[in-house]
Amino acid sequence: MEAEKLTVKAARFVELLSEPFVGREEEARLIALALLTREHGLLLGEPGTAKSAIARRASELVQARFFKYLLTRFTEPSELFGPLDIEALKRGEYRRISRGKLPEAEIAFLDEIFNANSAILNSLLSIMQERVLYDGYSEIRVPLWSLIAASNRIPEDPELEALYDRLLLRHHTKPLPENRWADLLEASWRIEAGLVPPAEPVMTMDDLARLHELVFKVDLSQVMPKLLKIYAVFEERGIHLTDRRKGKALKVIAANALLEGRMAAEEQDLLALKYVAPRDLEDFDKVAVILSEELRTPERYMRELSEILANVREAARAVKYMHNYDPRLIEMYRNMRTARSRVSTIMRETDDPKVREKGFELIKEIDAVIDEISRRLGI
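Above: the chain's sequence. Below: its structure in token form.
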């Protein structure tokens, strides 16, 4: 009964986390998985995509102490860990005033984390891995639960490799596509006008700790054979996971099952590997393709159909503004035929009624676009 109540809270947390932000469901999912596994996450992408705002909201929803900072190569350790206590130094004591700083945070957000200089890097590594700040002659236990980082680049400096590896969960945060701009403007106006109410806590840090304990009680036996096969496919396609990441991915898979209200993992939970496997930017698309090919789950099909639908509707809008016989119409015609073929394949591969219903509706929209393009091309 307690497990059921906790998983309901976790699902509600994900729902409320993404609520004010248009098209940021994946980011909310990553943060939820990071919190349930007590791991750290990275949001890769340009500024202005709500990365820090969603991290702050996560802390409000679980009533956690929050710390946020933008790193530059000139950032001093005192800016993150607190200034030295001068009065204590006079007494021969080495101590920092850490109130409101990273050593007291339960959830932290560090923007442009790969700007960390060597003076900060080692301290960050020990905090993330051991939850200990080695400072002078002191070992300070810190309450950090999860760190959410952001960057617009993947580090190439070998010195940053260890830091990058400790960010178990990764997601490429992209600007919203044109078909979501209207929703974006409406949501932005509500936020700017103060019409979005403050986040009401949905659970406590104690609840989160109990959920973390539940992660290790999830039954993974049914998905292990498929997981091993996917690891082999990743390796064949040039996606290399370290032994450490292969093992830690089990926590992410189990946590995903909890978010779905289950104590046993199913094949669809392996979709969470998309947050663990990518290393380079191009890996995100590669991993998505591999999981799409290997996992034939209703959820995966519904997401793919949603992506196709967004592209079809964007194409339909573009066609309206094109002149007859515009050369671009030929390429769009081919793309629509390819999309229709893919939707037909999905419908043959699944017996799920919701997937098939959405597939039929999507084919109607695709056919309408194909007819309009054909009319403009005179074919």
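The chain has three domains: 2-192, 216-294, 298-377.
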